[in-house]
Amino acid sequence: MYLKKKPLVVGLAAAAAVMTTAPVAVAQSESFAIEEIVVTARKRTENLQEVPIAISAIDETTISRAGIERASDYIGLIPNVTLVDAANVGDTQVSIRGVVSTRDAESTFAYVVDGVLSTNPNSFNEELFDVQQIEVLKGPQGALYGRNAVAGAILVTTKEPTNEVEAKIGGGIGNNDAYKVNAMISGPIIEDTLLGRFAISTRETDGFYKNIFTGSDNSVDYLEDTSARGRLIWNVNEDLSFDFRAGYSEVKGGAINFNAAFAIPQFEAAFGSPEFYKDVNDLDFKFIFNTPGENEQETLDLALKADWNLGFADLVASIAYNDLEEYLLSDGTSATFYGYEFTPACESDRETLNSFTRPDLFGPPGQPFLVFPPGEGLGVYGPYTATSCDGYQYQERNQEDLSLDARLVSPGDQAIRWIGGLYFAEIEREVVVAYGADQGQGFARRPYVSPTGPNPTDLLFWDQFDTTVYAAYGQIEFDLSETVEVAFAARYDREEREVDNQVPNVNNSGLNSNLLDPVTGLPGPINPAFASNPGGIPKRDDTYSQFQPKLTLNWAAGDNINLYASYGIGFRSGGFNSVGTEDLLNFWFNAGYGGPGEAVDAKLKVTDDYDKEVSEAFEIGMKSEFMDRRLRLNAAVFRTDVEDNQFFEFFAGPFGLLRSVTTIDEMYIQGFEADFTFAATEGLTLYGGIGLMDSEIEKNDNRPLSEGNDVPQAPDTTGNLGLEWVFPVKGDINLVSRLDWQYVGEMWFHTLQGEETPTIWNVFFGPGFNQNFSKASRDAYDTLDLRIGLEAEHWAVTAWGRNITDEDYLQEVIPAPEFGGSFNHPSALRSYGVDFSYRF
C-alpha cells in the first residue's frame, strides 16, 4: 500500500514470506525481528501487514519444515478454515469462514496458480512440490478473482526458473509401505533471456485401512500419484516477458470408502439393538466390498502469461487450458432394498457370505446387519458388502476448458492505483453417475453397459455441461490522507450455461426388481426423465449474472498498526442437477406422484436446476506488530449473509444412490479470528491462532424443520498452536524441531440435526420409522504433528510424525435423511517416516 511506513521489499525472492500462524524466518542479528511478508493478494506486491484483507501466507521454508505436500497439510494451520477429503482423490470440500465448497457445484473459492485462475475442479488437491508460496485470502474475493470466489481465494506461486544451474533430489519412506521421490532442475537455456525449470514427483502408499474380505492392504485408501511440472520464462527485453507453465499428473487411489449407520430410534426399539441408532463417532469401521474401489485421474494443464510494461501500466495477459479425465468404480447399496436379491450372483454369494458363516465380515447377526443364506429370509443388509447383492456404481468427471484473462495494472508507487481487466472462459464438463448389476463377471468401465454386458446398467445419469463465462473487473485505490486509504473494487460476471442429456433412450436390464415398471413388471426407462419425455430429453439452458462490488477502508493507525473495514458481495453461479433427479425423487419420496412416495411424503423440493448463490460480507480487522517487530498479532471480526446457499444432498433408496445440489434460502455466519507469531529468541518461534463462529439457517424451504440450526461444516471453534526451534549444531548445520497442535470443534454435515423426518422404511413398516440425526455430528478432535531434523546449506534429513497421538476421528458424515442413516468415512491415523533432500 502507498501509505507504508517502511520500505517494501518487492521481490518475492528477496522477501521471506511467512505464514502468520506459523514459524517465521528470523533475522540473525543483535536485534532480531520477524521479517516482512510480501503477498500478491491485490494483484500487486505489497506488505502483508498493510493489505486490508485477512490473509495467511506460507513461504518456502515453512512449506518444507511443516512437511506441506497437499492442501490438507496447511488448511489445519489456519483459523476458521477446514477441509474434508473423503470420497475420492481430489474430492475436497473447503470451508472458509463457514462457506463451504459443494460437491457437484462450483467451488466457493478462487484457486490461482502463478497468477492464472484454475477452473479444473481437482487442481486444488494436486501435489504441492517445488512451490514458493501459498496465500489464503478470506472473505469474498470475486471483485478481483471472480469465478465463484464467495468465500475467498487461495493463491499458489511455484518456483521460478533461475539464471544459474541448480538441481535438487529428495524422497522419503514411511509406514503403510509409503515412499516418495522427487527431483528438480533449473537454469538458463539462454543466459538472462530464456530460463527453464522442470520438477517431477511420485509417491505411493497402501493407506491405513485393509479390506478384510479380500485381505488386501492396498485396496481401500491407497494412493499412487505421479506429477510433473515445467516452466519457461522468456525475458524478451526489459519491458516484456512471457511465462509458460505446463503440468501433467496421473493419480490412482481408493474410492467411496464409507460405512453406513442407521439413525432410526424406532428400529432400535423394534429390534432391540442400539446399533440401529448409534453415535457415528463410535463406529467400528469394516471395509468388506467385493467391487474394487478405484479412482483414476489424468490431468493436463497449460498456461501462458505475458507481462508487458507499457510505462503508464503493466499489461498482464494469460491464456490457460486444462483437461481432466476421471472415473470412479465402487460397490453400490442396492442390497439394502433387495434390488438384486434374486439374481444368480447374489444367490450364489449368500451360500458362503452370510452372517452365520462369516461373522468376521458382518458382525453378530442383527447388530445391525443380517445376511441370511439363500431361501432363509431377506435379512438386513448394509451397503458396500462382500456380496454382489449390492450392485455397483460407476462415475465419471471429465472437463476441458480454455480461459483468457487480461488486465492493466498501474504502478504501485502512485497516489491513485488502479487495475482493470477482462475475463473469458469456455468450459465443457461431462458428468456420469451409473448404477447396475454385479454379476461376478468383472466390470466394463464405461457409462452404459447393455443387458448383455458383464455389468448391465440399470440407472444412468449422463450429462454434458457447457458454460461460457464473461467478466469485467477493476479496482481503484486512493489516499484520503497520509494514513487513510480507500479502495473500491467491482466485477460483473455473466455465465451462460447449457446441459445436454447423453443417456440412451433404452430400458434397464430388468435385473434390479425395484426398477421394474410397477404395473407391467417389465424393465423401466434407464433414466426416469424418459417417462415424461418418451421422445427424448430436451436440452436445458440458463444465464446467471451478478454485479460484485467491494469497498475497503484502511487506516495506518500507527507505525506498526493498521485497521481496516470492508464490505463486499459474493456470487456463485447457479446450475443443473442431472436430468431425472426431480422425477426420481418425486416418485420415491414425495406424495402425489403415484409411487412409494405416497407413504413417505417427505415434501422435498429438489429440482433439476438450482439458483445462483449471493453473499453479503462485512469485516473489521487489525494488523499489528509489537516489541520491535518480534510479535505479530492480526485479528478480524466478520459477518456473512448468504442467499440460496448451494448445499449437497445425498439420497439413498431402492433405486440406488443419487447426488444432487439443493439450496438453503437464507443463512448467516459471523465470527472472530486471531493469529499471532512471536519470535521469542533468535531460534525459537511460537505461533498460533483461534477461530470462533456462530451460524444459523434462517430459511430453508426444502427442509423447513432445519431453520434455526447451525450451518453445515461451520464448526464453532478451530485453533492451532505450535513452536519451531532452530538450534545451531556445527558450521552451517542446524537442528530444526517443529511441533503443531490443531483443533476442530464439533461439526454438523447436514441441515437436519435431530429433527425427525420420514424415511423410505415407512413404505415397508408403516408410519413412524423416521430418522433422527442427533447422533450424526462429528465430535471435536485435535491432532499433534512433530518433525525433527538436521538442515544444512545443501541437504536436510527429517524424521516426522503426523497425528502422533493416533487420534481416531471421522473425516466426513454424509447423512441421507430419506434412507434413515448416514455414510461415514474415517480419517487418517498415525503416520511417520523419514524425508531427505539434497541440493546441488
UniProtKB/TrEMBL annotation:
<dbReference type="InterPro" id="IPR039426">
    <property type="entry name" value="TonB-dep_rcpt-like"/>
</dbReference>
<keyword id="KW-0813">Transport</keyword>
<protein>
    <submittedName>
        <fullName>TonB-dependent receptor</fullName>
    </submittedName>
</protein>
<dbReference type="GO" id="GO:0009279">
    <property type="term" value="C:cell outer membrane"/>
</dbReference>
<keyword id="KW-0406">Ion transport</keyword>
<keyword id="KW-0798">TonB box</keyword>
<feature type="domain" description="TonB-dependent receptor plug">
    <location>
        <begin position="48"/>
        <end position="153"/>
    </location>
</feature>
<dbReference type="GO" id="GO:0006826">
    <property type="term" value="P:iron ion transport"/>
</dbReference>
<keyword id="KW-1134">Transmembrane beta strand</keyword>
<feature type="domain" description="TonB-dependent receptor-like beta-barrel">
    <location>
        <begin position="284"/>
        <end position="804"/>
    </location>
</feature>
<keyword id="KW-0732">Signal</keyword>
<keyword id="KW-0675">Receptor</keyword>
<dbReference type="InterPro" id="IPR012910">
    <property type="entry name" value="Plug_dom"/>
</dbReference>
<dbReference type="Pfam" id="PF00593">
    <property type="entry name" value="TonB_dep_Rec_b-barrel"/>
</dbReference>
<comment type="similarity">
    <text>Belongs to the TonB-dependent receptor family.</text>
</comment>
<dbReference type="Pfam" id="PF07715">
    <property type="entry name" value="Plug"/>
</dbReference>
<dbReference type="InterPro" id="IPR000531">
    <property type="entry name" value="Beta-barrel_TonB"/>
</dbReference>
<keyword id="KW-0408">Iron</keyword>
<dbReference type="InterPro" id="IPR036942">
    <property type="entry name" value="Beta-barrel_TonB_sf"/>
</dbReference>
<keyword id="KW-0410">Iron transport</keyword>
<keyword id="KW-0812">Transmembrane</keyword>
<feature type="signal peptide">
    <location>
        <begin position="1"/>
        <end position="27"/>
    </location>
</feature>
<keyword id="KW-0998">Cell outer membrane</keyword>
<keyword id="KW-0472">Membrane</keyword>
